[in-house]
Amino acid sequence: MARIVVVGAGVGGLATAARLAATGHQVTVLERAGTVGGKLGRYVRDTPAGAFHFDTGPSLLTLPDVFHDLFEATGAKLDEYLDLAPVDPIVRHVFPGGGPALDSCADPAEFAARIGAAFGDRAAADWQRLWRRAARVWQASHRDILRRPIDSPLDLAALAWRLGDLAAIGPGRTLRGLGRRHLSDPRLRMLLDRYATYTGADPRRAPAALVAVPYAELTFGGWYLRGGLGTLADALLTRCLDLGVVVRTDATVTRIDAAGGRVHGVRLRGVTAPIPADVVVANVDALTLYRDLLPSPRRLTGLTDRSLAGFVLLLGLTGDSGLAHHNVFFPGDYDAEFDAVFGHPGRGVRARPAADPTVFVTVADDPVVRPAGHEAWFVLVNAPRHGTATGAVDWRRPGLAEAYADRVLDVLAERGVDVRDRLVFREVRTPADLDDATGAPGGSIYGTAGGLLRPANRGPAHGLWLVGGSSHPGGGLPMVTLSAQIVADDIGPAW
């Protein structure tokens, strides 16, 4: 039985802790915040009409089998803890210039029919050809990448790729290029580009292999957890406690002791004596780990290429908007948005808030999260990370956040959804706020900007592992949960 310390109580940390405790290890989780969940945050606002509840992080659960596997591996059933509800449409896409919206769903034939009805038979046929390619990419990724350690580019190169898999993955090709090659309708290209932002990347630079992301979502479906996705953190915490895991909040780890090339424990702020450990699992951003907790300048290479961040409005509204659960309102010029969000550091062009951004609106039809006759809106806009570098924005600059919140509401009104006269309240969350709340450097949602190769799960010292969205296999609830499985399997059982 190993003494294991997990640094961070995000979904990856809690999932790893539960798996390791179920196999006989002595596990302690240390979390800097006062609550668990990490980026799976929550906010409650009381009003005379009643309480509004918001998820401030992920708003959609995909690949539900990953979570069923997690709970079964720890001796429980997912349905005993969480109430999953399928979402249809998964996303309602509203395109510039008017015209029909497009509702996505988890039935490929039905989705192709919806594309045909909205955009014509040629667009539907284009999508079906792309879909066959996406299936090959998904199968290769799921088989060879998502459930196994990938420690270096050599590991990827050494995989026994089938020739058909390599042709589908298209090494060196971008997601934007893939869309231009296969999709004649600009609205479908825009839809495909959006999935690069699921990994925090620019579709003009993101690898074509990310076509596996829409395939997974639109094959296995999108799901909502009644009561909000934050209930997943509650369920994982309960599972950990039932398995004997010690969970300490308000416990900030300041350093990992790794003298002699192996871990010995961690040090806490305000505590003199170190906490001994045979194994440390770091559920923190890889940049934070290698810059602050285990200073390793060599490992910082590539980690400063940060993913995009998010600017968020939490809106309490009167009435009923008639929107779907998830809605995307696209801009007239998608490239202008990416130019703004990422900037061009090499040319000295600073990042800035996009003037005409894509706006994501989540409206849960769940009486638990809003008073009767009201709606609780989570509004997200792609945004540059917080900071003073060329590729960042100082979101603490006086007046900026409120002015941009006004702009986002104006953009919604321009796109036919004017809620300014229905506001009960609004709360603003900037990338700087996410940095403060979760320790995500600059508020970057996914760590490094998207790609197939993330920081490895095995750390540079014996007994050190990385888990979570900034390490392999990437960000998003299912990927983070798969990273926990990879790490727990690598550490192995106590017996």
UniProtKB/TrEMBL annotation:
All copies of domain Amine oxidase, residue ranges: 12-293
Enzyme class: oxidoreductase
Pfam family for this entry, one: Amino_oxidase
Keyword Transit peptide found: no
UniProt keyword terms in alphabetical order: Carotenoid biosynthesis, Oxidoreductase
GO molecular function: oxidoreductase activity
InterPro entries given in the database record: Amino_oxidase, Carotenoid/retinoid_OxRdtase, FAD/NAD-bd_sf
Enzyme Commission no: 1.-.-.-
Pathway linked to the protein: Carotenoid biosynthesis
Keyword Zinc included in the entry's annotation: no
PANTHER family documented for this protein: PHYTOENE DESATURASE
Family per record: Belongs to the carotenoid/retinoid oxidoreductase family.
Name of this chain's protein: Phytoene desaturase family protein
